Amino acid sequence: MNPNDILKYGHLTVLGTLENFPKEQWYTSGACGYWSVKDLIAHLSSFEQVLVETLNNFLDPGPTYYLEKFTRDRIGFNDTEVELRKKLSMESVLGEYKVAYHKVMAAAPRIPNEIWRKQGALPWYGEEYDLEDFIVYTYYGHKREHCGQIAVFSDQFK
């Protein structure tokens, strides 16, 4: 598996999905529960921040504000982070997402292969999983899931 490709294709899925979604409906509730497309991107942006800190922690450990919030309360993390971005524009949350993605892509190639494949490297995620599993399920799969919701939601505006 090539983690860099997995990350790249997840990101391209997000961008392609947004490109095909009507901009005038970005703030309309209902894309995923009561969340709008903008809220979903705010949610993905906060997750991308978690990944930045997760990867950087393998390279040069430092503060992990988002990661700590995420591991402490995964359900509350989602609502809290979307709410924190409620007053921001779609352009702002999408910009935040893109900046975080670029930080991920700066860190990912620097992670040694043995770390990507080391079971239990993220004990809070599960001892039986490795870092590759984490990005496939929590990032690629997560982005595909929400992009599918956005695509279905867009059907009502055609």
Structure commentary:
This protein has 158 residues and is mainly alpha-helical. It has seven helices and no strands. α2 crosses α3 (65-72), α2 (37-59) packs antiparallel against α7 and α3 (65-72) packs across α4 (74-84). The protein is globular. The termini are far apart.
The share of residues in helices is: 55-70%
Profile the largest sheet.
none
Instruction: Write down how many β-strands occur, each being a DSSP E stretch of 2 or more residues.
Output: 0
Give the N-to-C terminal Cα separation: 38 Å
Mean pLDDT comes to 96
Count, helices? 7
Low-confidence stretches: none
SS strand fraction: under 5%
Give me the Rg, rounded.
16 Å
Morphology: globular
Q: Helices and strands: which structural class?
A: mainly alpha
Chain-wise SSE layout:
Elements: H1 3-19, H2 37-59, H3 65-72, H4 74-84, H5 90-107, H6 113-116, H7 131-155
Helix pairs in contact: 1-7, 2-3, 2-4, 2-5, 2-7, 3-4
Give me a quick take on this structure.
With 158 residues, the protein is mainly α.
List keywords for this structure.
158 residues, mainly alpha, globular
